[in-house]
Amino acid sequence: MAGTEKREGTDRLKREKSRLEDSLRKHERTEKALETERDFFAAVLEAADTFILVLDSAGRILQINRAVELALGYLNDDLHGRMFISALPIRDVAEGLREDLRRLGQGGGACPFESHWATSTGERLLIHGSLAPLRDATGALSHIIVTASDVTQNRALEDELRAMSLRDDMTGLYNRRGFALLAEQRLKDSRRSDSTLAIVYADVDQLKSVNDAFGHSAGDIAIITCAQALEETFRESDIVARIGGDEFVVLAEADERELNTVSRRLDGKLHRRTADSGLRFPVSLTIGCAHSKPPHRVSLDALLEQADAFMYESKHAAKSKSQ
């Protein structure tokens, strides 16, 4: 009987040993698989061109990838343990990101953001990205994944293209499209504030004669000279545009008396510019003005038509006087 019990005890020990060895082998395989998976994801993290940062649930930086290091000039050890919103984003936009982190902690989903980040040398980069939550089995926030990209150059190019689409190539003034967009908004603002606005329509005098006598390059000089004089004469807040070959318009906050003063100043600037540049031909503008003032408000198109008509009347009167 005793021998039987001993054999049974030995068998149980063998089975338990076998079970433990099997469990250990499974654990080792799992550990190896996890290690392989970690290595894989680490490789992906490092190879990604996108900025990737891993934060803990409080927003502290745990890991950054190589793209962040290369673009911002920081090593992982430089940022590890630091609060994300104080380490990278410029202070004036950190509050919005702080609110995003709070929403993630309360169960919210991914939050897109756009902010400026500072590099290790103090350069500002415009960053567009997203904060995405990782949650544990209970639904509690465990980590936050930041994915982002540097859009500084793209935004600068967009701004440049936008400016080009609203600006006249030759003079740098607003073109017809740019003037229309800005002037419509200014007119709406004036209706709310009960302010008086003036449209000044200006035409370069004798431009065809200048082109015929001295060439089109001389005509270009005349146009640029007029553009510069208009910019110098009117306030920075006024909208100055070239809307045609020899036609300019200005939207200014001014009444009739102020415009008379501005007109005399413009004539003086053009005369001095012509003299100082040693041009072989005179450069002058004929202008016409129309006003939008309370309670009589008219549309931008109507103002332009009125100012254009007054300008041609002035041109005709000057021509008749010279004959």
Helix % is 55-70%
> Which structural class fits the helix and strand makeup?
alpha+beta
Q: Number of DSSP helices?
A: 11
Give the tally of structural domains: 2
- The coarse overall form would be elongated
- Spatial strand order of the main sheet: 2-1-5-4-3
- Our measurement of the CA-to-CA distance between the termini, rounded to an integer number of angstroms, reads 145 Å
CATH superfamily of the largest domain: Reverse transcriptase/Diguanylate cyclase domain
What's the CATH topology label of the largest domain? Alpha-Beta Plaits
CATH class of the largest domain, named Alpha Beta
What does this entry look like structurally?
The protein contains eleven helices and nine strands. The chain is an alpha+beta fold. The chain has two domains: 154 residues, Beta-Lactamase; 156 residues, Reverse transcriptase/Diguanylate cyclase domain (Alpha-Beta Plaits). The strands form two sheets. The chain has a five-stranded antiparallel β-sheet with strand order 2-1-5-4-3, sandwiched between helices. A hairpin with a 5-residue loop joins β4 and β5. The longest helix has 46 residues. The model has no long low-confidence stretch (mean pLDDT 83).
Features:
5-stranded antiparallel beta sheet; Beta-Lactamase; alpha+beta; 4-stranded antiparallel beta sheet; 11 helices; 2 domains; 56% helix; Alpha-Beta Plaits; 323 residues
Which helices and strands appear, and what pairs or packs with what?
Elements (H helix, E strand, L loop, with lengths): L1 H46 L3 E6 L4 E4 L1 H7 L3 H4 L4 H4 L3 H15 L5 E8 L5 E12 L5 E10 L1 H15 L9 H18 L3 E8 L2 H8 L1 H18 L5 E4 L4 E6 L3 H22 L7 E8 L7 H23 L1
Antiparallel strand pairs: 1-2, 1-5, 3-4, 4-5, 6-8, 6-9, 7-8
